[in-house]
């Protein structure tokens, strides 16, 4: 059997694809197990079964027969798709037709693989539609540089038909003068892609045997052996170069007039560019800073007040070349006038394809005033905190669900806990030992009235608290939290009760006297009268209080 010279029928029989082997005339030699199951054939077909017969069990299209003949004539792999009915389902099958060569190189048989792609055909059609709409010549290559997809722009540029390109090795279209370079790049790209330029010049041979120069860029599809190739006519490159020069001029104008420091430097730390803002902040001109290229210590040491600060800055600046990611740091410099400036740096590495080296651009922002302002603010915040912590009254800030966000030292000491222990707990759990808010809770009243509220609350431990709650509002005017001041008035309340009791006892003694008693102020207004006085004039103490005595006696 011819197929025995290529591979064993057993390996093909266990393939996950539908496999068919025919001779040059299309007579079937072999069906694998999956193909027989698909066609519902139990035994190996007879030699007389031919793909050209109209009763062939698979719906063989005219395009398949054309590809079959082309595979024989060109001795090349052909690809395509057909539709077939199976179990009342219309299926889409992709096929690969591969000629099997004999010992002398002649085609002796044809091996065809079929694979069902019904579920992915719609997605593939959409992808091809998008791929063909790209206004740039593009190819998708499989392993060994076999062209899997060629878009319409590539066919338009080279003049080839799609069937002349797809399934063919890329090297067939490369000029012989560029072939060795392309193959070397292809080999190195798999080993170390960073060493290979993403773009290079390449001559492509068109259908009319003319050669055109193209700018080729190659991207490997991660996780696969496939790659995407973009090809630009040099006329487009010239337009891009002109545009690039224009953009470069605009970029330089922007860089020179921006209000941030911009420094370009190489991987050993030599400055290559020093913009106008850098000159203004440091006091050193671009000429002064760039004239010492190659002597990094001389170039930068004048900017730092100590060797330690210089070393810290220099080490941070070079980190981007090791990580290949941006890096941020802050350093203190001394300008030409001897004034200290604090600079926040953000450095970004990039590869200069023109010079073939990695460079970095550091963007610096003078944050001296901001830093000083923050230091003053920090001091102010510290002073405010000390004031709050020194208060003898309880100060508690809560969210609108009674969760404690801040409590001063007095508040923490009142429950014998630290701020870390109090944070996030309910105020009524901490001070009242309750599972629900207090009945006269000022926080609840403030949420309803959106105003300052005051209450007296007695807790289970016998203490009485005077609580004042203030609404705290955000920038939009909405309440974001409640600030409460609390004072333990238990002793005051006890003294008041004792005083009231003492007064009440004294009033009882005075009321038991038969003599008329009256107590008045300097303006003769009645302040107190005993019961005998009240009975004599037939008036209550409240009615008499505040009246002048001569009004009563007349």
Distance between the termini: 149 Å
The SS-based structural class is alpha+beta
Strand composition percent: 25-35%
Integer-rounded radius of gyration: 47 Å
What is the topology, as strand order, of the major beta sheet? 2-1-5-4-3
User: What is the name of the CATH topology of the largest domain?
Assistant: Beta-Lactamase
CATH superfamily of the largest domain: PAS domain
Number of separate structural domains: 5
Q: What's the total number of strands?
A: 22
Largest sheet: 5 strands, antiparallel
| Low-confidence blocks of residues | 1-6, 293-297
Globular, elongated, flat, extended or rod-shaped: what is the shape? elongated
Mean pLDDT score, rounded?
Answer: 81
The CATH architecture of the largest domain is 2-Layer Sandwich
**Under the CATH scheme, which class of the largest domain?**
Alpha Beta
Helicity, as a percent range: 25-40%
Q: Count of helical segments? A: 21
Structural description of this entry:
The chain is an alpha+beta fold. The chain has five domains: 2-119, Beta-Lactamase, CATH 3.30.450.20; 123-237, Beta-Lactamase; 258-371, 2-Layer Sandwich (Beta-Lactamase); 391-488, PAS domain (Beta-Lactamase, 2-Layer Sandwich); 504-553, 2-Layer Sandwich (Beta-Lactamase), CATH 3.30.450.20. The chain is 38% helix and 28% strand. It is built from 21 helices and 22 strands. It has a five-stranded antiparallel β-sheet. The longest helix is centred in the middle third of the chain and has 24 residues, at 234-257. The chain is elongated, with a radius of gyration of 47 Å. It starts with 8 loop residues before the first helix and ends with a helix. The model is unreliable at 1-6 and 293-297 (pLDDT under 50).
